[in-house]
Automatic annotation (TrEMBL):
<dbReference type="GO" id="GO:0005802">
    <property type="term" value="C:trans-Golgi network"/>
</dbReference>
<keyword id="KW-0812">Transmembrane</keyword>
<dbReference type="GO" id="GO:0032259">
    <property type="term" value="P:methylation"/>
</dbReference>
<comment type="similarity">
    <text>Belongs to the methyltransferase superfamily.</text>
</comment>
<dbReference type="GO" id="GO:0005768">
    <property type="term" value="C:endosome"/>
</dbReference>
<dbReference type="InterPro" id="IPR004159">
    <property type="entry name" value="Put_SAM_MeTrfase"/>
</dbReference>
<dbReference type="GO" id="GO:0016020">
    <property type="term" value="C:membrane"/>
</dbReference>
<keyword id="KW-0808">Transferase</keyword>
<dbReference type="GO" id="GO:0008757">
    <property type="term" value="F:S-adenosylmethionine-dependent methyltransferase activity"/>
</dbReference>
<feature type="transmembrane region" description="Helical">
    <location>
        <begin position="21"/>
        <end position="41"/>
    </location>
</feature>
<protein>
    <recommendedName>
        <fullName>Methyltransferase</fullName>
        <ecNumber>2.1.1.-</ecNumber>
    </recommendedName>
</protein>
<keyword id="KW-0735">Signal-anchor</keyword>
<keyword id="KW-0489">Methyltransferase</keyword>
<keyword id="KW-0472">Membrane</keyword>
<dbReference type="InterPro" id="IPR029063">
    <property type="entry name" value="SAM-dependent_MTases_sf"/>
</dbReference>
<keyword id="KW-0325">Glycoprotein</keyword>
<keyword id="KW-1133">Transmembrane helix</keyword>
Length: 598
C-alpha cells in the first residue's frame, strides 16, 4: 500500500503501466464471462456462429464433402437445425427471391427454386410451442393456434366465417367470402344445378381456396377437392388447410401450365379467386379448359359475375365461354355455372379472343415447367374415354382400369397387377410392420413415386387422403390416377416440393434412388441427403416414413436417417414380393430448438 502514497516523482512509470494493463485485461475477461453466461448475448453469438457454419455449407466444395460424409455414415453428428425464423420456410416460394422478379402475369408468385449449392444444409425446426396436430376429423373444425400463430386471416376474415381464434385453438366455422352463411348451404345451392351427390363427380379443383371451407365441406359428398393458393399476403392459408387435414397445394396460375394432366377434374371451382380469366387473350380460361373433363362443370362465384362496375369483364367472360361452346347452366346471384361440351370444341370460329385449336405437336398433359399455351386443347388429341358419363361412377372408378392406361404397353395388365401388389403390400405394412395406417394418427399422406396410384387405392377404407406425385421425368401416368378418382401432381424430386413444413403424417416412396437418377442411367442428378432433408421438412414431428428399395440403397438411407434425427428400422419385404428389396420404416423425432439455437 505504501507505494501508492509516494509522490508522483518517486513512482516507477514502467511498473505502473504494466499493472494497469494486467488489471484491465483481467476485468475485461471477467466482464466477458458474465456477458456470455448470464445475458442473451451469449445465445446470440452462439446462434450466429451456428448460422455461419450453416451458411458455410453453401460453399460447393464444403457442401459436397459434407453430403459425401453423410451418405457414407462418416458424419456422426445430426445435421444442424436451421435458424428459428425458418420455421415456415418453403425454398421455392421464398419472398426474398420472388420480390426481385417480374410481376407480369404473376411470374414472381410461381415456383422459383434455389440451386442446391445455394441452400444451407439444415433441418427446419418447429415453431416455439408446437404441439402434435389435432387428429382427424376434429381437425376439420379446430387446430392448435401455437402450430401456426398467424392471426391475419382471423382478424381480416373472421366476420365472413373463415376462421377465428378461440382459446388455444383456431376455429373454422365453414364460411367464406362468397358464402358467409357456410359452405354447406352454398354447396346445397350448387346441387340444384350440378350432380353433387351420387358419385358422378369425384375430382374437383378449388382455385384460390382461402382456408378451404369449400373443399372441406365437399368431402362429405364424396368429392375429393384439391385446393390451391399462392403464398401471399394472407400468410399461410394453405398451411391452415393442410393442418385441418384437407388436400391442398401451394400454387399460382401465372405463366406456366398447372402441374396436372389434361382432362383431370370433374369440377373446377373459383370463389372470389380473382383470376382474370379473359386477360392475355383468355389464356387462363384456356388453361382451365385443358384441365376440365368433357361434360365437366365450371363454377365461378364473385367478381366479375354480375358484379358492380365489372360489366365489361362479365360480358367478356360469357363471350369466351360461348366461343368454346360451354353451356351456361345458371346464373344464381353472383354465381355462374357452365358445363363443358363433350367432344372437340366448336372452334375454329370467329371470336374476339383469337382462340384457335392446338396443333398435333401439343401434348396437353405435359405440364412441368411448361409455358401456358394460347391454343385450345382438342379432346381428340388424348386417347381414351375420360368424359363425365363415360367413366364409371365413384367408387367403381377406383378399381376399374381406365382406358388411358392403354397408352402403355400391356397397360391394363400392368394396372391390374399393380392394384393387387399394393393391396398385399399395404396389408403387410399394417399387420406386420405396424404402420399406423387406418388410425387417427395418419390423415395427410404422400406417395412420392405413385405410378398408377395403387398405394393410394389400397387405402380406400382408411380416413386418409393421398397426394400422388408422379415424377416429371418418368412416364406421365397422372391422368390414370385422376381417372381412378384420386388426386396428385407432377414434380421433380431434385427440387423442393410446394408445401409448407410439417404438412404430412406419412410419406411413402418406392424406389427412392430412381427419383434422383437420370432416366436409363446410373448417374445421379442430385443426392439422397438433400432429398431426405426435404422429406423431413414436409413431415410432421412423430410422422412416419416408409421407403422401399434395394438393400444397398436402404443401408445408405438408414445412415442418412440417423443424421436427420429419425428413429428407423430396416425390415424384410413381404413374403409374396419378388426382387431384392428391403423396407425402411422411420419415425421423425419431435425435437425443438433450445434457447441457445433460436
Amino acid at each position: 500500500m505504501g507505494h501508492l502514497n509516494l509522490p508522483p516523482s518517486k513512482r516507477n512509470p514502467r511498473q505502473w503501466k504494466l499493472l494497469d494493463i494486467v488489471s484491465a485485461f483481467f476485468f475485461a475477461l471477467v466482464l466477458l464471462f458474465f456477458l456470455l453466461v448470464f445475458t442473451p448475448l451469449g445465445d446470440s453469438l452462439a446462434a450466429s456462429g451456428r448460422q455461419a457454419l450453416l451458411l458455410s455449407t453453401s460453399d460447393p466444395k464444403q457442401r459436397h464433402r459434407l453430403v459425401e460424409l453423410l451418405e457414407l455414415g462418416h458424419h456422426h453428428q445430426p445435421i444442424e437445425a436451421c435458424p428459428a425464423d425458418s420455421v415456415d420456410h418453403m425454398p421455392c416460394e421464398d419472398p426474398r427471391r420472388s420480390s426481385q422478379l417480374s410481376r407480369e402475369m404473376n411470374f414472381y408468385r410461381e415456383r422459383h427454386c434455389p440451386l442446391p449449392d445455394e441452400t444451407p444444409l439444415c433441418l427446419i425446426p418447429p415453431p416455439l410451442g408446437y404441439k402434435i396436430p389435432v387428429q382427424w376429423p376434429e381437425s376439420l373444425h379446430k387446430i392448435w393456434h401455437s402450430n401456426m400463430p398467424h392471426n391475419k386471416i382471423a382478424d381480416r376474415k373472421g366476420h365472413q366465417g373463415w376462421m377465428k381464434e378461440e382459446g388455444p385453438y383456431f376455429i373454422f366455422p365453414g364460411g367464406g367470402t362468397m358464402f358467409p352463411d357456410g359452405a354447406a348451404s352454398y354447396i346445397e345451392k350448387l346441387g340444384q344445378y350440378i350432380p353433387i351427390t351420387g358419385g358422378t363427380l369425384r375430382t374437383a379443383l378449388d382455385m384460390g381456396c382461402g382456408v378451404a371451407s369449400f373443399g372441406g365441406s365437399m368431402l362429405k359428398e364424396g368429392i375429393l377437392t384439391l385446393s390451391f393458393a399462392p403464398r401471399d399476403s394472407h400468410k399461410a392459408q394453405i398451411q391452415f388447410v393442410l393442418e385441418r387435414g384437407i388436400p391442398a397445394f401451394v400454387l399460382m396460375l401465372g405463366t406456366r401450365r398447372l402441374p396436372f394432366p389434361a382432362f383431370a377434374f370433374d369440377l373446377i371451382h373459383c370463389s372470389r379467386c380473382l383470376i382474370p380469366f379473359t386477360a392475355y387473350n383468355a389464356t387462363y380460361f384456356v388453361e382451365v379448359d385443358r384441365l376440365l373433363r368433357p361434360d365437366g362443370y365450371l363454377v365461378i362465384s364473385g367478381p366479375p359475375v354480375q358484379w358492380p362496375k365489372q360489366d365489361k369483364e362479365w360480358t367478356d367472360l360469357q363471350a369466351v365461354a360461348r366461343a368454346l361452346c360451354y353451356e351456361l347452366i345458371a346464373v344464381d346471384g353472383n354465381t355462374a355455372i357452365w358445363k363443358k361440351p363433350d367432344g372437340d370444341s366448336c372452334l375454329p370460329n370467329q371470336n374476339e379472343f383469337g382462340l384457335e385449336l392446338c396443333d398435333g405437336s401439343n401434348d396437353p398433359s405435359n405440364a412441368w415447367y411448361f409455358k401456358l399455351k394460347k391454343c385450345v386443347t382438342k379432346t381428340s388429341s388424348v386417347s381414351g374415354e375420360y368424359a363425365i358419363g363415360t367413366i364409371p361412377k365413384w367408387p367403381d372408378r377406383l378399381t376399374t382400369a381406365p382406358s388411358r392406361a392403354l397408352v402403355m404397353k400391356n397397360g391394363i395388365d400392368l394396372f391390374e397387377a399393380d392394384t393387387r401388389r399394393w393391396a398385399r403390400r399395404v396389408a403387410y405394412y399394417k399387420n406386420t410392420l405396424n404402420v399406423k395406417l387406418g388410425t387417427p394418427a395418419i390423415r395427410n399422406v404422400m406417395d412420392m413415386n405413385a405410378f398408377f396410384g395403387g398405394f393410394a387405392a389400397a387405402l380406400k377404407s382408411d380416413p386418409v387422403w393421398v397426394m400422388n406425385v408422379v415424377p416429371a421425368r418418368k412416364p406421365l401416368t397422372l391422368d390414370v390416377i385422376y381417372d381412378r378418382g384420386l388426386i396428385g401432381v407432377y414434380h421433380d424430386w431434385c427440387e423442393p416440393f410446394s408445401t409448407y413444413p410439417r404438412t404430412y403424417d406419412l410419406i411413402h416412396v418406392a424406389g427412392i434412388e430412381s427419383l434422383i437418377k437420370l432416366p436409363g442411367s446410373s448417374k445421379s442428378r442430385c443426392n439422397l441427403v438433400d432429398l431426405m432433408v426435404e422429406i423431413d421438412r414436409m413431415l410432421r414431428p412423430e410422422g412416419t416414413v416408409v421407403i422401399r428399395d434395394s438393400p444397398e440403397v436402404i443401408d445408405k438411407v438408414a445412415r442418412i436417417a440417423h443424421a436427420v434425427r429419425w428413429s428407423a428400422t430396416i425390415n424384410d419385404k413381404e413374403p409374396e414380393s419378388h426382387g431384392r428389396e428391403n423396407i425402411l420404416v422411420a419415425t421423425k423425432t419431435f425435437w425443438q430448438l433450445t434457447s441457445s439455437s433460436s
